[in-house]
Amino acid sequence: MSLVDLFYSVATGSHRRRALLTPIGLVFFAGLLLLLVVVAKYVDAWLGLPALMVGHSGLFVGLGLTGVGILLWGSCIAFFLRARGTPVPFNPPRELVTVGPYARTRNPMLTGMFVILFGLGVLLHSAALVFFVTPAFIVANVIELRLVEEPELERRFGVVYTEYRRQVPMFVPGFRFRPGEGASAN
User: How many CA within 13 A on the CB side of residue 6?
Assistant: First the structure.
């Protein structure tokens, strides 16, 4: 069974199974984020990287980024809950959410998480979190989205998702590669 098949069977399966898997998904994701921060601090020490943005400017920029990321992330969760789903891929909304931040980007919850990680990198003065770990996490998410989540969503929602994907960028509103410019469209 492929990951696409697994996620599809769980996402379209019984409410009981989805409800049981939701806390597991939450713990896994929270643990992964904590692991990213810890790994980044070890990489900083191991490579002897200088502290990033020490002082008031770092505090201001870090808190600002973290706050914006939390607001975006939280608003996305609210839209998912209104659609009677959760942000955990095992228990998604039954309908495609295309309103609020989802009208401007297909993955605003992840965009918020990336901004939070950049903000935490600045707050923790971690060059590794800002320049290595978070960008690697973004790349890993793009790969997962392309190989697992988007095919599963296309299978579940059909042409509605295909059209949404064609019209709405993956992460950053207004940032799209145009066909014919040397890269494929989002």
Answer: 7
Residues 180, 69: Cα–Cα separation, whole Å: 33
Burial class (CB in 10 A: 0-12, 13-18, 19+), 183: exposed
What is the rounded distance in angstroms from the CA atom of residue 143 to the CA atom of residue 53? Answer: 31
Amino acid, res. 105: T
What are the C-alpha distances in Å from 12 to residues 70, 92, 135, 163?
A: 29, 9, 32, 21
* pTM, 2 dp: 0.87
DSSP string, 57-94: HHHHHHHHHHHHHHHHHHHHHHHHHHTT--SSTTS--S
What pLDDT digit, counting tens, does each position of 34-70 carry? Answer: 999 999 999 999 999 999 999 899 999 999 999 999 9
How confident is the model over 90-131, as pLDDT tens digits?
888 999 999 999 999 999 999 999 999 999 999 999 999 999
Mean pLDDT score across all residues of the chain: 90
Burial state string for 46-73 with b = 16 or more CB within 10 A and e = fewer than 16: eeebeebbeeeebeebbeebbeebeebb
Nearest to 159 by CA among 96, 67, 66: 96
